[in-house]
């Protein structure tokens, strides 16, 4: 698999290391006025630098919330510190995926890892937040998409929020990851009856220039939707070419294919959002087991063609277009 071109430059975020919350790389700003508690996180995965670019810019601009509180965090700072543009696939995490450790079964256990310890530092901010935006990108060159959480477990409110924001083009209901709970699924975010809402934007391929534009655009539109920034302040930074208002498409993932073997091979170099026309068509070999399209017009979501993976990793999600 040939290496994707690195078009983005990872900013030096060490100037934000001190934070102002007692936790490194976490900044919180209080407007002093009533309003929601809003959190934005970048670099949950160490090599997804678009979020670092957007958040670094945002902090440098000195934006402050007009209502409520705003928390800005850099997630997996230890992995980010290992960024090497010559080996950009090697620092997704240090010990384990930071976005699979957000269940109390992990955080309140005696397990430990670089990522579990970082999540223990961050979790109080997550638990205080009414609205969360978690900024990611993808290994394969794939159109940006919003991961709205799990069907029946809070994804509807995340889809509604994403439609108000109008970005990106694809919104996704999914099935979660057997390997562990994501930040956007923690606590009330997964409760359809709670107004607390968390969204996870996949801004495009990790190192493509577009990903930084999508990250920044989504960040500013999210902060307007939550009332944190006024439209007048944020709108000059919107990217009009990225506006998909009224044209967004919703994918419902029905199953996640998890690696049961280290000998997992896709039948083609898929990149994501391919539509497999016929039920039963081959998609991959999971060791000895064939993975085939479960229905006509199966959409492939985020195939892990060449990222850092292990047994239990979600290798691809399979879904259907449900509207749009
Ligand atoms: Zn990610």
TrEMBL record:
Record InterPro entries: AspA/AstE_fam, AstE_AspA_cat
Boundaries of every Succinylglutamate desuccinylase/Aspartoacylase catalytic domain copy: 34-184
Domain of life: Bacteria
SUPFAM superfamilies per the UniProt record, alphabetical: Zn-dependent exopeptidases
UniProt keyword terms in alphabetical order: Hydrolase, Metal-binding, Zinc
A GO-annotated cellular component: cytosol
Gene3D superfamilies, A to Z: Zn peptidases (3.40.630.10)
Cofactor(s), by name: Zn(2+)
GO molecular function, one term: metal ion binding
Name of the featured protein: Succinylglutamate desuccinylase
Organism this protein belongs to: Orrella marina
């Amino acid at each position: 698999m040939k290496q994707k071109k690195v078009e983005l430059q990872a900013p030096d975020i060490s100037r934000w290391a001190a934070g102002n919350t007692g936790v490194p790389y976490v900044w919180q700003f209080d407007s002093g006025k009533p309003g929601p508690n809003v959190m934005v996180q970048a670099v949950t995965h160490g090599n997804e630098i678009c979020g670092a670019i957007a958040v670094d810019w945002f902090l440098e601009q000195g934006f402050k919330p007009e209502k409520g509180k705003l928390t800005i965090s850099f997630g997996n700072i230890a992995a980010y510190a290992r960024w090497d543009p010559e080996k950009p696939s090697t620092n997704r995490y240090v010990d384990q995926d930071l976005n699979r450790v957000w269940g109390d079964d992990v955080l309140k256990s005696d397990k430990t890892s670089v990522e579990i310890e970082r999540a223990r530092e961050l979790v109080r901010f997550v638990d205080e937040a009414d609205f969360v935006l978690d900024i990611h990108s993808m290994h394969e060159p794939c159109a940006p998409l919003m991961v709205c959480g799990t069907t029946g477990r809070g994804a509807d409110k995340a889809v509604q929020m994403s439609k108000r924001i109008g970005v990106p083009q694809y919104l996704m209901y999914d099935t979660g990851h057997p390997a562990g709970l994501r930040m956007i699924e923690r606590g009330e975010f997964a409760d359809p009856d709670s107004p607390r809402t968390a969204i996870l934007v996949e801004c495009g391929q990790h190192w493509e220039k577009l990903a930084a534009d999508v990250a920044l655009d989504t960040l500013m539109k999210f902060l307007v939707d939550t009332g944190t920034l006024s439209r007048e302040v944020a709108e000059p930074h919107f990217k009009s070419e990225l506006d998909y208002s009224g044209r967004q498409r919703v994918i419902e993932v029905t199953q996640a294919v998890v690696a049961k073997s280290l000998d997992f091979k896709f039948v083609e170099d898929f990149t994501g959002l391919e539509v497999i026309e016929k039920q039963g068509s081959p998609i991959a070999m999971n060791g000895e087991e064939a993975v085939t399209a479960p229905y006509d017009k199966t959409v492939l979501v985020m195939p892990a063609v060449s990222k850092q993976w292990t047994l239990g990793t979600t290798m691809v999600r399979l879904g259907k277009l449900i509207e749009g």
